[in-house]
Design a protein that fits this description.
The protein is built from twelve helices and 15 strands. With about 350 residues, it is α/β, with parallel strands linked by helices. The strands form five sheets. The chain has a seven-stranded parallel sheet, sandwiched between helices. It has a two-stranded parallel ribbon with strand order 7-10. Helix 4 links the parallel strand 5 and strand 6. Helix 1 packs across helix 6, helix 3 runs parallel beside helix 4 and helix 5 crosses helix 7. The mean pLDDT is about 95.
Amino acid sequence: MRILVLGGTAFLSAEIARQAVAAGHDVMCLARGSRTAPPKGASWLKADRSQGPAAYAGAVHAGEWDAVVDVARDPGQAEDALVALAGRARHWTFVSSCSVYADPSVPGTAEDAVVLPPLPAGTPATMENYGAAKSAIEHLTLELAGDKAHLCRPGLIGGPGDESDRYGYWPARFARHPGPVLVPDTPAALTQIIDVRDLAAWVLTAAERGVTGPLNAVGDPVPFAEYLDESRRLDGGAAEIVAAPPDWLAARGVNYWAGPDSLPLWLPPGHEGFTTRSNAAAVAAGLRLRPWTRTLADSLDDERRRGLDRERKAGLNPDTERRLLGEWRDATDPVGAAG
């Protein structure tokens, strides 16, 4: 196939391009390349999508495409690409997100769940309106690419190269040093990820087979306690786990899910459906998933390569964790409390 990847230099889009080249496809990446270049074997169309419709002139000039893959977050950029290229593509994949769903509280929901209203035209896309922005792009994709559009809806993407630092935080934390590890006391809460390599393979499989429509590209739910146990086992299983109540952690400024001084994969009440989306339709259409334990082990290997003590985008700062561990022990030590 002739495949155009709008991106191709970071995490998922780079993995898609890499696998497409390895499979023998003719791959072009349209990207600025401000930090990295596309994978070896892919041609590089240097362009800045923020410059508007002119950014796609080279891709238009290049002719027809068997598949176009877009991972955009900005509805304006996505619309420009669709207007310029949808008529030249046999198949169009928009990598959306399960964040488009309006109600994160209902477990096990499928693709027929209600989605968020689209972000109004002209509104800048931010992380705060991420789901609405993706919803807007879904609407544009269906309007302009029609029945050749695959709306691929992943949840949390993990695996080697994850720059969000979320899924790899816990195995890296156990491996960093043998001291006690502070965790939220939510053992029955569920986690759900998809390996970036499986997601990239699915995007290509769907394009090859002409799969269309909205499909949740997610892994199977795994209890947080099992995820923590496996993270600890990867480093020998010696570390002490200190489980603190969620309300106690939240009251002391620990953040949910991601970002500085967060406990990754921990979600606030009312998000029970956020990590339990149904993947049945995608699996039936050809999505294949490796064991989550393999993704976790590979994530730890990647964490070691990048440095366990590096500054992270997600997780507790070591000084914050030490302070909180001390406060929790003071609060739960009857002798200390009496004194």
